[in-house]
Structure formats: structure tokens, C-alpha cells
Specification:
By secondary structure, the chain is an all-beta fold. It is 1% helix and 50% strand. The two termini are 36 Å apart.
């Protein structure tokens, strides 16, 4: 039976009501016409969910949301929105398919296992378009492989991190790309398999290309640039993404050279030729999650009636210490004063490498009347480093902004709201 979670929205001295589908059925995220923003949907470690937005269908498998610091169920607030932002230009010759420039949050967050997403092809064939995801770590658009073509005009992909994605018309630019295939004879029923390719050349080691298959079906990965890759295959014992994973194992296959161009067929990927074949064994599997292929899972952080999250990526030779600040009527929460009566900073990142995060959330719903302001401060380190800051109030993402601070000790104003 479907149940509804209704939350009051108390912003700008007005009260509205928003209803979120909290059952097992598909959740459709839409623009909220009462406030600036879109609905969010919270999924815990022990839950699975399907979230739809503008033709995109994101499936969060049970167990994909990492646990919290105490080892209990973590919670992640998902949001999707269209954007006109282009952090950097796409590769020359590529053209954006209208309505497919989407920001999916949380940003710079590594899940415990991959999420899957059905991407609307908007009437194009799979070989005519490519999905790209923006990499904050490398400041480039990276291609996201298709895993299968669906009969409803979508193609499926796997993502271990979310972020900004865009579907582009190839216009012949990517016709020389290759593809990787694992035949069904190597894949057992009752498992989800994930193939991960990591380039072996220099700075592109952070790019992770992932594809998936289920229940003994052939595994395909398209849109693979020619080159040499480190290959890892991971499998989870589960019959459906909504079911708990019985076991997770991985197999390091070694290096594989992708040198063939993929030749388009007349139907789904089984009709294509030119695949680079990967053979795997049913022996030698290592128990556990493949951190070396997927990166360490992000420990979940606090959520509440209010949540502000700041993220960025620190890489070798380019690190920064940004700080998140919340100014309230009678308090100021930041790294030097991490807790007030109703709010807490539970994640403070300095200049360590990796996916950086700072998070302030409400530990009580009894907000003091007055004005609240979220700011980002450049404390130290590299200038011009891109960040993303998302603010959620009462289940509505009221602000999501990407920016960069080019002056040391500068504050960026992110969002201000008033509660009466």
C-alpha cells in the first residue's frame, strides 16, 4: 500500500505542504511551485528506490547507500534538476540533446555499489548519442558507457558516482570508439555483474567506466576509447536491485587492450560486431567490495529538516580548504564552533585528497525565528577550485550552485531564508 509523507514548508513567512511518495513505487521528482527548488527523496542503506525525473529513471539498489559512522543505516537525499551550466566545453563536434543536461546529487559521493539509470534517447539510436558525465577531479567530460538498449527508447548505464550528465549527438565524432563484451557463459544466474575499466595512462586513472548485467545475460560496454585498461569484474548475489545483496566479490582480470572499432548492428547490442572480448573464471574471486576499482565508499553524513552540503575534489597538486558556514539569528556554526542548539557541522574537510565534503544539518526541528544564511569560505589552498553547494529545507532542494573562489579568504553567499 502506498503511503505519503507530508512535510510543512515554512519559508518566507508562508506555510505550504509537500507530499513525497514514501512507498515502494516509483518516485517522480518535479519542480515545486511554492518554493525555489525541486523535491528530494531520502533513501537509506536498507531501502531500494526508483526516482524519475524528466525521462531519466535512477534506480538505487538496496545497500548502495553506505552506512553511517556508527555502522547503522545511512541516509542520502537524492535530487535531480535540469541545468544550463557547462563547467567546461564539450569535445569539439558534439551537440547537446535538448533537455538532457541534468544535475544529479549528491555530488562527489561514492556509493557502496553502482546505481543504474535508464537514459532517454529522445528518438535517437544508441550509436548516434553518447552520455557524458563531468569529472570534477579531472575537469573534463568523460563518456559513460551504455550497458543495454531498452525497448522503451532508453539505454541503461551504471554509475558509482553521480554528478552532472549530458546526452550529446555524436555527429560522427565518436564512430571510432570500441566496446567490451563478456559472454553469458561466464556469468551465472542469480548475480548482478559489474565490469570496471580504468585507463592505465597517466592522469586518467580516476576515470572509471562501469557497465552491468543481471541473471546470466551477456554484459556489454559501449563508448570505450581505444587504449589499455585495468579490468575488474565484480558480482553481487541478488535476484533484483530491490533485494539485499547476499555476497559481493571481485576478480582482477589484469590489463586489456581495446583496439577494435565497434560496428553497429541492426538491433540491440547482440547484433553489433567488433567487441573486445573479456574472459573470466569462476575461480579466484576475492570477497568484499573492490575499493581499488570503485574507490572508497563515502561515509554518509547527517540529514534533517535543514541540510547544507559543500563538496569539491582535492587531487594531487591541486588542493583547497573550503569551509561551510551557517549564520543564524543567534548562532554561527562552522569549523571553530561545530554545534549549536539545533544545528551541527558533522563533516569538516581540510586539504586531504579525494572527494571533499562539509555538511551542516539540523539536529532539532525547533528552529528559532529569524534569518539564516549559508556561506562558503576559501580558508586556504588553491584558488579557482570548483565546488558545489546544495541546500535542502523541509525536503525541498532550495539551492544547488557550482562556483569557484578566486581570492583567498573570500566568502561566497549561497542562500538566505527567513523563518517567522
Amino acid at each position: 500500500m502506498k503511503k505519503w509523507l507530508c512535510l510543512p514548508l515554512m519559508l518566507w513567512a508562508a506555510t505550504f505542504t509537500s507530499c513525497l511518495d514514501d512507498g515502494d513505487e516509483t518516485v517522480v521528482l518535479e519542480e515545486n511551485h511554492n518554493v525555489e527548488g525541486v523535491e528530494t527523496y531520502v533513501v537509506s542503506t536498507s531501502e531500494s528506490s526508483v526516482v524519475e525525473y524528466s525521462g531519466f529513471r535512477l534506480t538505487v539498489p538496496q545497500g548502495a547507500v553506505p552506512k553511517n559512522n556508527s555502522g547503522g543505516d545511512g541516509r542520502v537525499a537524492f535530487s535531480l534538476q535540469q541545468t544550463n551550466e557547462m563547467p567546461v566545453a564539450l569535445p569539439a563536434g558534439l551537440e547537446v540533446v535538448s533537455g538532457t543536461n541534468i544535475k544529479i546529487e549528491p555530488m562527489n559521493f561514492t556509493f557502496n555499489t553502482p546505481l543504474t539509470m535508464d537514459v532517454p534517447l529522445n528518438g535517437y539510436n544508441a550509436h548516434e548519442v553518447t552520455l557524458y558525465r563531468f569529472s570534477d577531479a579531472l575537469n573534463i567530460w568523460e563518456p559513460v558507457p551504455f550497458s543495454k538498449i531498452n525497448g522503451d527508447g532508453t539505454a541503461s548505464v551504471a554509475l558509482i558516482e553521480l554528478g552532472q550528465i549530458v546526452l550529446v549527438k555524436n555527429n560522427g565524432v565518436t564512430s571510432s570508439l570500441g566496446g567490451v563484451h563478456i559472454a553469458s557463459r561466464y556469468l551465472q544466474r542469480g548475480y548482478y555483474y559489474y565490469l570496471t575499466l580504468i585507463p592505465t595512462n597517466g592522469n586518467t586513472n580516476n576515470i572509471k567506466r562501469i557497465s552491468f548485467s543481471a541473471n546470466g545475460q551477456d554484459l556489454y560496454m559501449t563508448n570505450v576509447e581505444k587504449g589499455t585498461y585495468r579490468v575488474t569484474v565484480t558480482r553481487e548475489r541478488r535476484d533484483a536491485l530491490s533485494a539485499a545483496s547476499g555476497v559481493i566479490e571481485y576478480l582482477n582480470v589484469g590489463e586489456k587492450n581495446v583496439y577494435n572499432s565497434l560496428v553497429v548492428g541492426s538491433g540491440d547490442f547482440s547484433t553489433y560486431t567488433g567487441w573486445t572480448e573479456v574472459e573470466i573464471s569462476n575461480y579466484g574471486w576475492t570477497s568484499g567490495r573492490p575499493d581499488g576499482a570503485w574507490g572508497s565508499a563515502t561515509t554518509t553524513y547527517g540529514t534533517g529538516k535543514f541540510q547544507a552540503t559543500l563538496t569539491w575534489v582535492n587531487s594531487n597538486g591541486s588542493t583547497v580548504d573550503y569551509d561551510l558556514h551557517l549564520y543564524g539569528p543567534d548562532f554561527h556554526v562552522y569549523f571553530a564552533d561545530e554545534r549549536s542548539e539545533n544545528f551541527e557541522l558533522d563533516r569538516d574537510w581540510l586539504e586531504e585528497l579525494g572527494n571533499a565534503v562539509e555538511n551542516i544539518y539540523s539536529i532539532s526541528d525547533n528552529f528559532t525565528s529569524g534569518t539564516y544564511t549559508v556561506k562558503v569560505h576559501h580558508y586556504d589552498g588553491a584558488l579557482g577550485k570548483r565546488y558545489n553547494c546544495r541546500v535542502i529545507v523541509d525536503g525541498v532542494m532550495v539551492k544547488s550552485v557550482s562556483g569557484a573562489i578566486n581570492t583567498n579568504d573570500q566568502f561566497d553567499d549561497i542562500y538566505t531564508f527567513t523563518i517567522n
